[in-house]
Amino acid sequence: MELNVAKIITSSFELTNMADAAVTIRTRKFLTNRLLQRKQMVVDVIHPGLANVSKDELRSKIGKMYKADKEVVSVFGFKTHFGGGKTTGFALIYDTVEALKKFEPKHRLVRIGLAEAPKGGRKQRKEKKNREKKFFGVRKSKKPKKE
């Protein structure tokens, strides 16, 4: 019985050592999108022994790879392949923070901390939407004042 316990301990010890393994980041399908003032690419992350790599860490590493500030890098859409060890996603590197704020969706700006999440509940949003529906096609001057 004691031998089995010793085997379990050594195998878990080996796994914790594997967690320190290096992370490899490769990019492919690189495209410079001048209209949206950004570079866009597919990112392959190879992380043997790790469950995954944080998006914050990926943003800083991709920023270093392309000599850009971490603030102008946006990463999203990551899927871990079956069996683990490899994850694929998408990265955008904007030319400036202003371009990032202009073209990036609001929910991604909230995630990276450049915008604030809208306050208020679901019920309030629905009531506002229904109030605004009554004035479809009416000049803005005839709309009721904001409450």
UniProtKB/TrEMBL annotation:
Biased composition, Basic residues: where in the chain? 136-147
Known Gene3D superfamilies for this protein? 3.30.70.3370
**Region Disordered: start and end of each range?**
115-147
Which UniProt keyword terms apply here?
Ribonucleoprotein, Ribosomal protein
The protein's superkingdom reads: Eukaryota
Family matches, as SUPFAM superfamilies:
Ribosomal proteins S24e, L23 and L15e
Record's Gene Ontology CC terms?
ribonucleoprotein complex; ribosome
Q: Where are the transmembrane segments?
A: none
Q: Which GO BP terms apply?
A: translation
Q: Which InterPro entries does the UniProt record give? A: eRP_eS24_sf, Ribosomal_eS24, Ribosomal_eS24_CS, Ribosomal_uL23/eL15/eS24_sf
One MF annotation (Gene Ontology) recorded for this entry: structural constituent of ribosome
By sequence similarity, the record places it as follows: Belongs to the eukaryotic ribosomal protein eS24 family.
This chain belongs to the protein called 40S ribosomal protein S24
